Amino acid sequence: MLILLPPSEGKADAPRRGKALDLDRLTLPGLREARETVLDELVKLGADPAGALETLGIGAGQAGEVERNTRVYTAPAMPAGKVYTGVLYEALALDELDAAARRRAGRQLLIFSGLWGVVGVGDRIPPYRCSIGIRLPSTGPLTAHWRRALAAPLDEFAGGELVLDLRSSAYAAMWAPRHGVTVRVLHGGKVVSHFNKATKGRIVRALLQSGDRPRTAAKLTETLRALGYRVEEPKAGQLDIHVEQL
Q1: Is the pTM of this model over 0.90?
Q2: I want to staple 167 with a disulfide (CB 3.0 to 4.6 A). Which of 53, 171, 201, 220 is the partner?
Q3: Separation CA 128–CA 42 (nearest Å)
Q4: Confidence band of 111 (pLDDT split at 50, 70, 90)
């Protein structure tokens, strides 16, 4: 089973020293050309800081993000699982997993990104700012760029495996898995919004610790129930998970 995650706007600070980005060592190295297209445009945006802020959809108080983007090729890189610091990743707590669960995370987790397309949690990348919803001057909308680039490689990579899709709608538009299952988190019969991310992080953590790799939505439902979650029967590729605590 593969598990698809969104990135987070929150990023860790780059380490002071260390090896820089090596595109050939990222998951799916065949995406190098598509990645370089976006990387090169981000670097060029730095020549016009005001225009870069508008393109990236951020305010003047975040001007440091533009400068950081100009150093994506040369800044010290770190594992993607440590770069993202949002609510989901705090709940997932990759560093606190045992060695076996961390190995599973390296094999099963794919993080979607406006800059990289997809990366594995162990792929070394620098912190950056590039949401999927932006439109770059030459490349155009990133969603369309990555939809074209990802279709064939990810179809082959996923094969016939079940794909647990925990991405937000913006990132889900980049690629549609053939055997995908999405999740809704409900509390008191209502769909959870903010705490949705934390719950999904805890679900992924529990699955990695269990070592189970269900091949169907029905088997995934059984696994989650065995892990203590209240899960409805899957309907049209969606699982509804009811939680008592947020």
Answers
A1: yes
A2: 171
A3: 9
A4: very high
